[in-house]
Amino acid sequence: MMVYIDLSEHLATSKKNALYTSPQIQNEIINICGEIIQHKIIEEVKKAHLFSILGDETTDIAHVEQVSLCLRYVDLKDVKHQVKEMFLEYNPTVDVTGS
C-alpha cells in the first residue's frame, strides 16, 4: 500500500536533517521517476507487439549534440487503437559522421 503525503506536510513535520531537499537527492528522485516512467512505457510497447524507434539529432543550449529517442506504437488497450508516440531519452552524441 502506498502512502501519499502532501509535500507541505512533509516539510513541516519532518526533521530538518531528513527533508530530502538537497540538489543531489532531488536529482536522484527525478532519475528514479524517469526510470519508472520509461519502464511503464516499455511494458506498454511490449504489449503492442509492433513499434518503431524514432531517432533525431538535436543540439542543446550548451551546444552539445544529442540524439532524442522516441517510440511509436499502436495502443491496443484503447478501443480506437490510437497511435502513440512516447519520448524515451536524450543520448549525448560523440560522433556525427554517420559511421
From TrEMBL:
InterPro entries in the cross-refs: DUF4371 (IPR025398)
Pfam families: DUF4371 (PF14291)
Domain DUF4371: 12-88
Signal peptide segment: none
Superkingdom: Eukaryota
Protein name per its UniProtKB record: DUF4371 domain-containing protein
Species this protein is from: Ignelater luminosus
Taxonomic lineage: Eukaryota, Metazoa, Ecdysozoa, Arthropoda, Hexapoda
